[in-house]
Amino acid sequence: MTALLWTLIAIQIVMGVFDTFYHHEFTERLAWRPSQRFELKLHGIRNMLYALLFLLLGWLEVYGALALLIVAVLVAEIVITLMDFVEEDLSRRLPPSERINHTLLAINYGAILVLLLPVLIDWAMQPFGVMVVNQGLLSIAATACAVGASLCGVRDFAAMRRLGRMRSAPAHGLVEKLQGRKTVLITGATGFIGSRLAASLSGAGHNVIALIRNPAKAEMLPPPVTLVTSLDQLASDTEIDAIVNLAGEPIGNGLWTEAKRAKIIGSRIDITGEVVKLIARLDRKPEVLVSGSAIGWYGLWADQVLTESAKSHACFSHELCAAWETAARPAEELGVRVVCLRIGLVLGTEGGFITRMLTPFEFGLGGPLGTGRQWMSWIERDDLIRLIAYVMATPDLAGPVNATAPIPVTNAKFTEELGRRLHRPAVFRIPGGLLRRIGGGFADELLLGGQRVLPNKALSRGFVFRHETLRSAFEAIL
Fold this sequence. Notes:
Layout: H1 3-27, H2 37-59, E1 60-63, H3 65-91, H4 96-124, E2 129-132, H5 137-165, E3 183-187, H6 192-203, E4 207-211, E5 226-228, E6 242-245, H7 258-281, E7 288-294, E8 305-306, H8 316-328, H9 330-333, E9 337-343, E10 345-347, H10 355-362, E11 375-376, E12 378-380, H11 381-393, E13 399-403, E14 409-410, H12 411-422, H13 432-439, H14 441-447, E15 452-453, H15 456-460, H16 470-477
Parallel strand pairs: 3-4, 3-6, 4-5, 6-7, 7-9, 8-15, 9-13, 10-12
Antiparallel strand pairs: 1-2, 11-14
């Protein structure tokens, strides 16, 4: 085997490691997505085949029919990879970096086969036999790669088994409070919250109109759903009973530069303004507009308990939420009941902030942020969907409504409970000073600040949370 061949194999290993850890573990988080169970099975089988190949090529030269066994393993790897490509396209939307990486892997693997197959054919033409070959550092490196590949395979199979035990509640049962057959317009329908709401409503027999900006994401919504890419596509005689406005630029996927702040605010004001314009030209007005907001409206209050009647402290989060709520209020002048849903930290494994914590916690690298004394007001995603349906079905509920579970916890308690549920320690505290240097205002408000929020309006109207405690929520989603 030539130096060029080993170089190409080394390049393949580096790209494979990058794909596994950057894409599969940290960005796509496949180990926590029930929809990717079969993909993980394919990854596990392929990793075990890689481990076998590394050991064979690192320590042995096999002749006769045994050489054909290696060829069979290579063919099996190609078949599994093709199945993996098909499965990925059917079950998830690959980010551009992963598609590029897969292309480079395929090209490099083709080059490896061009150089390796003549060697294997030469071995196959010789008498049956096996010879141990110690190639020094190359053999040691091949052994290390075999161990790494086998560990990744074990990880994939273990995650696959765990996903098989994870069960989510039937979507249609979450909106049972919404009686009759309603037509609901949802903006932000392909997001973490909007997609579950759309599935719940359509599953319960309601008509869903989904505003999506990216048609490629339409596959995320289960039929039947009416898709529009602009509210201008809706005629004035369209009958809409309720509007749920959740669209907006994500706030937790990057540092809050001036440009990012402007985009975060502008995206929410613009789409909410479009919603109000739609309401103004509809012949029959919807009964209710449930417009998104967040508990960031209150600003940072340390330990003070905050209900819907609390005042605010000035900060970017308050500026954002206040502008968002203000943009929705003109709908009241058009005779529409407006509810501004001040949403807390939403828990679920398919999106939201917790997905960024699962991988480090699972590998034993989790822990509190800063002092850990900051409050985290959270809500389990299905409880949020139930609350949205409850708000739509409750005519006397208007104005700001806190969408948080009734028992908020500190960051230290949150990380402790997450570690307990994953059977991992949660002792790696990240210094607050480091987070501030890296994240600035983003870290101050989203990571190190917090609000101790109670859902007084929801509770006083009789809404019952399925998950009042963090332990109950983790047991449901993890």
